[in-house]
Amino acid sequence: MDENSQKEEFSYGYIHILASVCGYIIHRAERQLDNRGIDLEIIGAELESGDAPRIVVQTKCTTKRYFYEEQVCFKYDLKS
Fold it and tell me: For the chain, how many structural domains are there in total?
């Protein structure tokens, strides 16, 4: 597995762990959505209305360290 694939899998795994602890469902996007910048969908518990809150996310992972004083900072160029 190349380094980019490893970083991709790490980012999915990290988000999956955090969301699972909170009781959320994680759905990994199909390739067509991935091409549109959507990697994962996080789905919350069903509400009384029958709806379930959900968000779609694009994951990022880097091996570089970006520190400013005591904070981690990233410079990110927005595409869409």
Answer: 1
